[in-house]
Every structure is written in C-alpha cells, then in structure tokens.
Design brief:
mainly alpha, 188 residues, 59% helix
C-alpha cells in the first residue's frame, strides 16, 4: 500500500479515537458557529439595504437618484408605449418553448403542469433509481447524464436570454413594410 495512503488512514483513525474519547457536543460549539455566521450574513444584508436606501436619495430627495448601489426606483412606466414585446425571463424559457410546441388550448395544461411535474418527479426519484454504491461519475451514466444535461442547460440559459426570439424581432402591428423599403432604397 502507498505510504501516503497509510499515513492518511492512520491520521483519520487517530482523529476518530480522539473524538470518541473527548467528544465535541453539537449544542455549544456548532450551534455557536452557526449563530455567529447567520448574524454576519444578516448584518451584511441589513448594511447593504441601509446603504442602498440612504444613498439613493439625491438633492431633491427623490428615489431616482443613482446612489451607491442603484436607484430606489426608476421613473414610472409610460402606459402609452405600444412597442414593447413581453418576453419571459430566462428561467421561464422552458415553459415558453413548451407553450410554443403545444398550441392547442386543450394541451396547455399538459405543457404547463404535466410535463414539468413529470420532469421534477423524475429528478427527485433519480437518487432512488440509481442505487449503485459507486461514486465515480464515469461509472454512473444515469446520474452523470442527468447532471450534465442540467448543467448544460443552466450554462446556456443566460446566453439564450440575451438573444431575442424571432417573435420579438417582428415589426410592430401597423408597420408599413413598403414605406420601410422605400426609405432603405429597396423595391416595394
């Protein structure tokens, strides 16, 4: 056996024996560490919220001043705008594309509830389906494929969100294409 491996095993054995002899109870030690870290996180969030709130007030005490961490709110929306094309955020793209596939009103329930529920149940059942004790990813093709597919989709989602779908590149309703071609110098 490798000398380094033997040293690691001996060190682990000594550690286990020391813990069995002295012990380290959860209540005062680990709970104290968790409490301190939780307080640090909450304090940082509260400090950032206070800095954002108090630095966003400008000379006129309106919330649109940029401040250190951005404005408190932006200008009100213009209800007269008609050229806005609503698009879902990147984390709803899978539902958006499912609704593109299932266009019939009877199948909308299947696309929005049925398929995502089946996928979620399969994802939760995956640890119970693949019961091998092997931990190497190369010897666990089911888990590797599921995890790799999820990771690929996660990495591609922001790039896909930056691209506009073809529906949002269409000209607005009432757009005169012939006049647009004349302006660009094309044949109507």
């Amino acid at each position: 056996m490798n000398r380094r491996l033997q040293e690691r095993r001996a060190q682990h054995t000594r550690y286990k024996q020391a813990v069995a002899r002295r012990g380290k109870p959860f209540y005062p030690y680990a709970m104290f560490h968790d409490t301190v870290m939780s307080l640090v996180v909450v304090s940082v969030i509260a400090a950032l919220a206070a800095i954002w709130k108090w630095s966003s007030y400008g000379p006129g005490h309106d919330g649109t001043h940029p401040g250190l961490l951005g404005p408190e709110f932006t200008a009100p929306a213009d209800p007269g705008t008609t050229n806005f094309v609503p698009r879902p955020d990147w984390y709803f793209y899978f539902l958006f594309y499912l609704l593109r596939i299932f266009k019939w009103p009877e199948s909308v329930f299947l696309a929005t509830v049925g398929i995502p529920t089946v996928c979620l149940v399969l994802l939760f059942a995956l640890p119970f389906i693949d019961l091998r004790r092997e931990r190497r990813l190369a010897r666990r093709p089911v888990a590797g494929g599921a995890g790799g597919g999820r990771e690929t989709r996660r990495r591609r989602a922001p790039a896909r969100a930056r691209r506009e779908p073809a529906a949002s590149r269409r000209p607005p309703r009432g757009h005169d294409e012939a006049a647009d071609l004349v302006v660009r110098g094309g044949d109507p």
